[in-house]
Write a structure and sequence with these properties.
The complex is a heterotrimer of chains A (532), B (95) and C (210). Chain B is built from three helices and no strands. Chain B has 95 residues and is an all-alpha fold. Chain B has two domains: 9-64; 66-95. The chains are: A mainly alpha (532), B mainly alpha (95), C mainly alpha (210). The interface between A and C is large, with 35 and 37 residues.
Chain lengths: 532, 95, 210
């Protein structure tokens, strides 16, 4: 496994050296890393905004900023976290890094297109950022840009939606690349049903990226056109229908949450068998449930609009389909649990992250039943209950899986090992803070506190204080986790090549891998979760 | 991975024949919609457009002769689009 | 000297060339375009349902003759690009170039027709953001907003398609696209057919249905 003569992908010197070597790379591993660095930066920026929001909300009345600024805060927080972190998230970073190696390939099908996707991501981020500083001020519409306000507000909506459009393009091209890669570059002997589940989830995700993202692209273009050219689509004053905007917006944005969560579930599906030293239970069920989530998830968007004035029969159908889509998710949790059963459990950091994921994801999922049911949603729509729900499921889901993946593949990516004790302590503090931050939101939401409000009634104060303190605890845990990773030490040999005895192909390479991953393309003779 | 393409080559005559059919359908569409048939106008025009689209997909875009996977994917995408349009419209037809 | 360098670059790329991947990639991209325009078809169908009288009246302001001519032009252009692929498969470089050139020319004629069609509207004060358009009744305004937006977006795709075909034409001339290496022509052709497909639906929806 030691390759003394071939440089690994981090040290490799090609036509260009240094930074330029990275900026012109077509190596999927470097591109994955570039996504990671950018994404962590944006995530931390978004987290800072979140902390500021929580500071403002520690008591009723003004603490730090005026209402207009607060509106800009939650808009930017949403835009950053959603478009710059969780949507590209696990796929762009770990899909890029691990997928080709897991398939026994040297790279993706379109390496140059892959680099182009990264540049689009950066360009989109820059455009969104400039919308904060140019013209008449940062957008205050919320990340959802609902019409007609988004058509009327004087703030920089056009720049923000343009940025989102460019980011969407990046997402589309990544999905296109991954799908083609799986069709064309699986190693000899790797039939479709010998692919790891992480690959399958990326496949399902790729299709959502392809088929849902264009809808948000065209919808945001219509907003821009309406603002710039005065042509009417959603302005009720000229016969436009704002509810139609909501339909179009959510036709993308609901499947988008499956873009967020499917790769995350894929990561968990890799970690659990490795740390149970047992093949994944129900391999086929996990494939089918991934596809089912992607497919059914396409038709539930109306549950974001129950109070918008939709027809009653429409609401019933969306609610029914919403309950239906919860089933394949539950199937996955059962499969993971069954994998653990009678397994040889190794309590390492990635395993703890996976357990944390299952805990918070289930809370998020159960709260989803409340918002997914029309009768109860009427009472909690646009309250903090929803905010609690999606933070549990998105931050708890994709966020936890992202950090789980970081701790799982860190040795492979960098050839370094981190201090597990500190990592676990960091995780524990993070986990405690996370729950203290978000659980009170369910309570205060049920009590009637609206979301996206700069101020609130005095009777909601105690929950808000608890929540804000929770944010401080959580961020402390996060800092410990990140600093600990940063201080990881270089190592060689098995300790870093395959520290967890992982069964999939990426663990057969050296850490960090050589540029083309394998000296010789492997021939696959068995399924992905065989343990000796 | 082999780069040999599908062995089927459509001749010039095949393409011109398809073109003739497409133009015929176009003329029929114009003729039908010039007659006042109310709701049936929309149905007829869309039906013929769908036939034309199918012909372009199958023959000009070679789906009939290529690997079946492309045809399957295309059908899948069209079904999804149709369903999205249908579900959205459903909300409006009921109001 | 130049040919030798070209040949070297070509061989290196050919080592990693995967025509099936390129074709799959183009099809996947076409799917995104179908959904892109699909979103607009959602908007169209909703507003047609809500304002069917206004849409009926508004469509009469469009010239069916113009629409018909443009439809035929695009159909013929689809045939010519398909025939160019037949030609290249048979190793007939001259025919391939003629057919690609014909496709590009037909596309240009389409755009010129569009220019006149839109121009006529503009001259009557009907353009996005104009006072006249602002004063239209609701259904009217929506029809023309959709008309300009959808045919405009379609026109943009015609320009993209033309660009792809021009690049392909140049490469055929340089023998970089030939009978054993014609993925670029095939995929540009696929893109062009997509542009035709969209118009096949735009034509009846805007010009014919009432």
């Amino acid at each position: 496994m030691e390759n003394n003569h071939l440089p690994n992908y981090l040290e490799y010197r090609g036509k260009y050296k240094g930074l330029l070597g990275w900026l012109t790379t077509t190596d999927h591993k470097r591109i994955g890393l570039m996504y990671m660095y950018a994404m962590m930066t944006f995530f931390l920026a978004g987290a800072v905004i979140g902390l500021l929001m929580r500071l403002e909300l520690i008591a009723p009345g003004k603490q730090l900023v005026e209402a207009q600024t607060y509106n800009a805060f939650f808009t930017l927080h949403g835009l950053t976290m959603i478009f710059l972190f969780v949507i590209p998230g696990v796929g762009a970073v770990f899909g890029n890094f691990a997928l080709p190696i897991m398939l026994g390939a040297k790279d993706v099908s379109f390496p140059r297109l892959n680099l182009f996707s990264w540049y689009l991501y950066i360009l989109g981020a820059i455009i969104v950022l400039t919308s904060q500083f140019m013209g008449d001020g940062p957008p205050d519409t919320g990340w959802t840009f609902y019409a007609p306000y988004s058509l009327k507000t004087q703030t920089n909506v056009v720049a923000a939606v343009l940025g989102a459009f460019v980011l969407g393009f990046s997402s589309i091209l990544t999905g296109l690349n991954f799908i083609t890669t799986m069709h064309r570059l699986r190693a000899p002997g790797m039939g479709w049903r010998r692919m790891p589940i992480f690959a399958w989830t990326l496949y399902a995700t790729g299709w959502i990226q392809l088929l849902a993202t264009p809808i948000i692209g065209i919808t945001l273009s219509m907003i821009a056109a309406e603002r710039l050219l005065g042509i009417g689509f959603f302005d009720p004053a000229i016969g436009g229908d704002p509810v139609l905007y909501q339909h179009l917006f959510w036709i993308y944005s609901h499947p988008a949450v499956y873009i967020m969560i499917l790769p995350a579930m894929g990561v968990i599906s890799e970690i659990i068998p490795t740390f149970s030293r047992k093949p994944l239970f129900g391999y086929d069920a996990l494939i089918i449930s991934s596809m089912a989530i992607a497919f059914v998830g396409y038709f539930v968007w109306g549950h974001h609009m129950f109070t918008s004035g939709m027809a009653t029969s429409s609401r019933w159908i969306f609610s029914f389909l919403t309950f239906l889509v919860a089933l394949p998710s539950a199937v996955k949790v059962f499969n993971w649990t069954a994998t653990l059963y009678k397994g040889s459990i190794h309590l390492k950091t990635p395993f703890w992250w996976a357990m944390g994921f299952i805990f918070v994801f289930m809370i998020g999922g159960f709260s989803g039943l409340v918002v997914g049911s029309v009768a109860t949603d009427i009472h909690v729509h646009d309250t903090y209950f929803v905010v609690g729900h999606f933070h549990y499921i998105v931050f708890g889901g994709t966020g936890f899986a992202f950090f789980a993946a970081m701790h799982y593949w860190w040795p492979k990516i960098f050839g370094k090992i981190y201090n597990q004790r500190i990592a676990n302590i960091g995780l524990l503090i993070f986990f405690i803070g996370f729950n203290i931050l978000y659980f009170p939101m369910f309570v205060v939401g049920l009590l009637g506190m609206p979301r996206r409000y700069y101020d609130y009634l005095p009777q909601f104060t105690s929950e808000n204080v608890i929540s804000t303190v929770g944010s401080w605890i959580m961020i402390t845990g996060l800092i410990i986790i990140l600093v600990n990773l940063f201080r990881s030490k270089k190592a060689t040999g098995k300790e870093v090549d395959n520290p967890w005895n992982g069964p999939t192909l990426e663990w057969t390479t050296q850490s960090p891998p050589i540029v083309e991953n394998f000296e010789e393309i492997p021939v696959v003779t068995h399924g992905p979760y065989e343990f000796k | 991975m082999s780069n040999d393409n599908s062995s089927h080559i459509s001749g010039y005559k095949d393409h011109l024949f398809v073109l003739a059919i497409l133009i015929t359908f176009t003329v029929i569409t114009v003729a039908i919609t010039s007659v006042e048939l109310n709701a049936f106008n929309t149905v007829a025009a869309l039906l013929i457009a769908t036939c034309k689209a199918a012909i372009v997909l199958l023959y000009f875009m070679h789906l009939k002769f290529d690997n079946k996977i492309y045809l399957l994917m295309t059908i899948f995408v069209i079904v999804i689009l149709g369903a999205v349009i249908g579900v959205t419209l459903f909300d409006y037809l009921d109001q | 000297m130049e040919t030798a360098i070209n040949a070297h670059q070509e061989t290196h790329h050919d080592l990693h060339r995967d025509d099936h991947a390129s074709k799959l990639g183009m099809w996947l991209f076409i799917f995104t375009e179908i959904l892109l325009f699909g979103g607009l078809f959602v908007v169209y169908s909703v507003y047609r349902t809500k304002h069917h009288v206004a849409f009926h009246l508004a469509h009469e302001e469009l010239s069916i003759a113009m629409g018909l001519i443009n439809t035929i032009i695009l159909l013929v252009s689809s045939a010519t690009v398909a025939m160019s692929i037949t030609a290249i498969q048979r190793g007939n470089k001259k025919h391939a170039m003629y057919f690609v050139a014909a496709t590009i020319l037909l596309a240009l004629v389409f755009l010129i027709n569009k220019y006149f069609e839109w121009g006529a509207k503009f001259e009557h004060g009907m353009y996005p953001g104009s006072d006249l358009m602002q004063m239209l009744s609701n259904g009217d305004m929506l029809f023309f907003s959709l008309y300009f937006f959808m045919t405009g977006l379609h026109g943009l795709h015609i320009v993209v398609g033309m660009t792809l075909l021009i690049i392909t034409l140049v490469k055929i001339k340089k023998d970089l696209v030939r009978s054993d290496k014609y993925a670029l022509l095939e995929n540009s052709g696929l893109y062009w057919h997509l542009v035709d497909l969209i118009w096949i639906f735009l034509f009846p929806l805007f010009y014919l249905i009432h």
